Amino acid sequence: MLCAGKKSYFAAAVCIFTVTSMLAVSYLQLQGLSHQPKVIQEGRRCRGKIANSTVTALKGTKAFIISPYFDDRESKVTRLIGIVHHKDVKQLYCWFCCQPNGKIYVSKAKIDVHSDRFGFPYGAADILCLEPENCDPTYVSVHQSPHGNTDQLPWFEIKNRKAETFSVDFTVCISAMFGNYNNVLQFIQSMEMYKILGVQKVVIYKNNCSHLMEEVLKFYIEEGTVEVIPWPINSYLRVSSNWRFMQDGTHIGYYGQITALNDCIYRNMKRSKFVVLNDADEIILPLKHPNWKAMMNSLQEQNPGTSVFLFENHIFPETVSSGPFNISSWHNVPGVNILQHVYREPDRKHVFNPRKIIVDPRKVIQTSVHSVLRAYGKSVNVPMDVALIYHCRKGLQEHLPRESLIRDTTLWRYNSSLIKNVNKVLSQTLLRAQN
């Protein structure tokens, strides 16, 4: 016996502690090794279908894969953005296809369900797998077992493998467009405001929208401004249009918005200097600068080491109209004319104004809707005298009389360019929709 001959209680205690420590270290080493990639097949080509849907269900599990991304910021891993049941998905494995040597490696996944699940049984998750050291795989599959036939598994292309130069300064991520979305006029106005402020790309996770909205999206796709990501999440899960679980049998909140936002950050990590997370009825309006580029240059200079910039949301009720921009040619276009809404609600006592975000995507690990959950670098709340979010929607303080609202005509600084650009888009999209 390892501790035989020891007579004192103290020596026995030391001995027990030593043995326990040795066992614990051995266990942890084994656990670490279990995540290391292992060769399971050699000398054959990887077979199976390439996944081409934005949302792919993993057979036999309560897990869904959106897309995998190469991430070497801490170690050489594949990070799969996914959706999982927070209790029932305990074990997954990545199968890496290494060509041309014909080896298939299996790596046990770490499943990291994001903390902002808001009570729903399904939530956004990172599925993390160490990659083989001697291979830069371009495809990965995911399975609940380290054994099986690769011919039956869907393969996913691993994005962000190649280094790229920034193709744009600002990308806006909008998620998710659902409910037969038909707020056409406000959407066009927001798009044209984004472009005036310096946005080159808008990524939209689209569940569904109206016929006229489809024509508008086609216009912007052809123009090169919009990228539409199909988002058929309701084909797989019972979705809620609320952000908080209402005990109503739904599976995931707000059409999987958080998952889409995380995917959008990683999708644009290598190609956009900044990524902006806001909704289609929200515009970050700079008060001290003419555009976002000048604003962000100033904010970065004043806040070195900051990777997350949070802007305070302010409601401009769509029920309170004012101003000289009641444009008759817009009357037959469905949606809100934001130029007529320049009164904002005052802050409410003891109520936190939510924020939306501009981030350096290369520094973000996980994001929620109103905050970044994990990131490299600091976060800063941008003062309201620098910029605010113009959010034109149904009011939250509908009982307030007009004289209690705050007149804020910052938006009108852009009215000339905005009206001209909106008219141009409407003339082309309405004509197309009528044909």
From TrEMBL:
Keyword annotations: Glycosyltransferase, Membrane, Transferase, Transmembrane, Transmembrane helix
Topology with regard to the membrane?
A: Single-pass membrane protein
Please, which domain of life does this record's source organism belong to?
Eukaryota
One GO cellular component term noted in the UniProt record for this chain: membrane
Q: What class of enzyme is it?
A: transferase
Q: Mark the transmembrane ranges.
A: 9-30
Q: Which InterPro entries match?
A: Glyco_transf_92
Which Pfam families would you find in this protein's record? Glyco_transf_92
| Chief location bin | membrane
Enzyme Commission identifier(s):
2.4.1.-
Name where it's found. Answer: Membrane
GO terms assigned for molecular function: glycosyltransferase activity
Q: What does the sequence similarity comment in the record state about its family?
A: Belongs to the glycosyltransferase 92 family.
Name listed for the protein in its UniProt record = Glycosyltransferase family 92 protein
Annotated organism of origin? Sinosuthora webbiana
Q: Point out the gene that encodes the protein.
A: Galt1
